């Protein structure tokens, strides 16, 4: 299975795979920053769709941070995994401390990327949620759950690469999952890219500014 050249190539390939959505007037592409933004920019360009961001912060379980006890997202959304909370006997104060900690980072990212630009309405929209790849899928699952609270017409998850098991799990939660590569042997997202540098806040701001300028033109 050939690796992808970079996030730009991945976004263009996903844009082609999602071409059937191009004629929808209710389309909205949401990127999960930071890595999802370069991918989503190419998808939005290919589909002639508006682009925005959805900042999601996972609430890790104490002592096992990869296990999500919930998540918070842009717009004051909060989703809790009550099964995990009950099984681990996690107290309310632990949850509130985690929310407060992650809320600070969420607000920092929102301010850094969006400035004073208002969040787009999601209700009734066909939303394509984009990241540059998935491992466990915990953050994307949190994003889907948070979006459901806003009553979109349809949620499509679009990613270049993810383990087959993660894709199957998300198919039960999103309306559709579009994934270019589902390798059986999966160690890290970066192994499926030739060029996979960290995406900086500055790069995110530049890509969003360019996309929003195109929308105004």
Brief account:
By secondary structure, the chain is of the alpha/beta class.
Description of the molecule:
The chain is of the alpha/beta class and 217 residues long. The chain has two domains: 7-56 and 116-216, Rossmann fold; 57-113, Ybab, Chain: A, CATH 3.30.1310. The protein has seven helices and eight strands, in the order αβαββββααβαβαβα. The protein has a five-stranded parallel sheet, sandwiched between helices. Strands 3-4-5 form a three-stranded antiparallel sheet. Helix 1 (7-17) packs parallel to helix 2 (36-47) and helix 4 (92-114) crosses helix 7. The longest helix is centred in the middle third of the chain and has 23 residues, at 92-114.
What kind of oligomer do you see? single chain
Mean pLDDT across the residues is 93
The helix tally amounts to 7
The general outline is globular
- Helical content, roughly? 40-55%
Across the major sheet, the strand order is 2-1-6-7-8
> Biggest sheet, open or closed, and with what strands and sense?
5 strands, parallel
Unreliable segments (pLDDT under 50, ≥5 consecutive)?
Answer: none
CATH top level of the largest domain? Alpha Beta
Strand/helix succession: HEHEEEEHHEHEHEH
The count of β-strands is 8
**Count of structural domains:** 2
Q: Compute the gyration radius: what is it?
A: 17 Å
Strand content: 15-25%
What is the second-level CATH architecture of the largest domain? 3-Layer(aba) Sandwich
Q: What would you call the structural class?
A: alpha/beta
